Amino acid sequence: MASFEICGGCSLNGEVRIQGSKNAALPMIAACLLARGETKLYNCPHITDVYNMIKILENMGCFADFSGDCLTVDTTGNLSGIISPGDAASMRSSIMLLGAVLGRQKYVSLPWPGGCSIGKRPVDLHLKALEQMNVSVTHHSSGLECWTSCLRGGDISLAMPSVGATENVILAAVLANGTTRLHNAAKEPEVVDLCLFLNEMGARIHGMGTHHITISGVKQLKSVSYTVMSDRIVAGTYFAAAAATGGNILAYPVKEKDLRCVLDVLAVMGCGIIIRKDRIGLIAPPLLLPVESIYTQPFPGFPTDMQSQIMVCLTAARGTSMICENIFEDRFKIVPQLEKMGAKILVHENRAVIRGGCRLKGASVRAEDLRGGAALVIAGLMAEGDTKVEGSGYIERGYENIAKDLDQLGARIRRL
Length: 416
Known about the structure:
By secondary structure, the chain is of the alpha+beta class. The chain has helices spanning 22-31, 48-60, 85-88, 97-105, 124-131, 163-173, 189-200, 232-244, 256-268, 307-314, 335-340, 370-382, 392-395, 402-408, and strands at residues 3-7, 13-17, 38-42, 63-67, 70-74, 107-111, 136-139, 143-147, 155-157, 179-183, 204-206, 212-216, 225-227, 248-252, 272-276, 279-283, 294-295, 320-324, 344-348, 351-355, 364-366, 386-390, 412-415. It has a 4-stranded mixed β-sheet. It has a 4-stranded mixed β-sheet with strand order 2-14-16-15. It is elongated, with a radius of gyration of 21 Å.
């Protein structure tokens, strides 16, 4: 199994370019199915989740070419609505194909999706919303079958502002008959970027970035070229790594509004934040300060995808901090690994209390999910001695080349 080997004790300094967004690119790749022709996605990240999505589309009958940062998807031919278990098992985002394939084929057979083990993450919100659009759903032990004679718009209210369910409704609604009004929709920047992409293709979507999105169905969409937004979670991860190591970095391109809540927490921890258009700088203090409480919430609140990275930083803060995880119930899987390195963290239900002031020691640890794996890399950068982070495959699901990026900033890290 591949792993990262890290020699701790180096501060991160310099500039780093932020890759394209994983969580924006994946639903856009699914959206390519809605137009016949060649769609080009620029700034598409070279990560395993993207490669897995490409493989799924190719097995459905698409042609894909990934050259440089440009992914070309040709959906001209006849496509299958059947997705194989092997293709879907490797990634959660295969659920995005429900809305897109129904919009194109009116039928989809999808195995239960895989991905990181960070909680139940049920798909009932997706299915309930699609059923309100005239979709019939059959559950099997191995997966789902969904079909419709005609997608129909309507008023849909989500029980919670789920990003995935919001995107699935949008993907199904753009070619549906009538108008879909989606209430309690997710407001994440990646949802907005998907809507802007679809509007370029000829969709009629209004209200993205709010809890009320209106989608007026159209007859067809056209192929376009589009540039994927930068990955705000990758940027946040590198800011956390710089904060944890007493560094000074500049990341670009990054939008302040996409990372405002994370930057606010880093500022409370004593970091200096410098905003320059699409460039953000972070200057770490000599000693990080604790944060009384952090609550993960849907955007614009503190993102669950940054919780593990900030937890690692807080192990070095001079005081006690608390993190309350409100999105996924298994986001604290990293805690036993950090305890092996000397961290003092008490977990009770969805709360973690971090007793700061610990100097982490190098150890052999294992990543069990994408963001937890990235956080263990940060722990290795902070620690005295050498750290081996096994399970690099989890990390490479979302980080294009984390070892190269950190190495350019002064880290001593290599992929084994």
